[in-house]
Amino acid sequence: MSRASGNHKPSPAARRKARGFALQALYQWHIAGANLTQIESEFRADNDMSKVDLEYFHDILHGVPRERSALDEKIAPLMDRRLDEMTPVELSILRLGAFEMCRRPDVPYKVVINESVELAKIFGATDGHKYINGVLDKLAQRERAVEIRGARAPQRQDNKEQ
């Protein structure tokens, strides 16, 4: 089963679990350079994936490496250090967040940022989540400007006469 439930839309929890496993798999790919298909097979065999959005896990795991150069070009100008100065975990989180921000418009920008920050709190250095938040917020300004303007626009109320 590719999703945590029979619903057409995966649950937020199933997506969150997919991101967590995808981050760990991307870290493994980054460190060991192992084959993505092999990493994915190992994760599916070694973990309880029954409540994971497997399609999303697959999309992130294969999408981030495929888009790595383009993602790095998007995030590098927003950083105050070089990519090779980042820890492998935090670089993987930034790439995952950038992938979602740039390639998954179905995921609201606030969700992308919040989920990336949560991953950084769990897997990253002590204050790494602050850096992740700052970089992805800048990326959102560039990639999701229309969405951000829509979210900030005051709610219009019609004053129609009855």
Automatic annotation (TrEMBL):
Signal peptide: none
A family per Pfam: NusB
Keyword hit for RNA-binding: yes
Record keywords: RNA-binding, Transcription, Transcription antitermination, Transcription regulation
Limits of the NusB/RsmB/TIM44 domain: 16-140
Source species, domain of life: Bacteria
CDD domains from the UniProt entry: Terminator_NusB
Function, in words: Involved in transcription antitermination. Required for transcription of ribosomal RNA (rRNA) genes. Binds specifically to the boxA antiterminator sequence of the ribosomal RNA (rrn) operons.
Family, per entry: Belongs to the NusB family.
NCBIfam families assigned to the protein according to its UniProt record, in alphabetical order: nusB
Protein name: Transcription antitermination protein NusB
Gene assigned in the entry: nusB
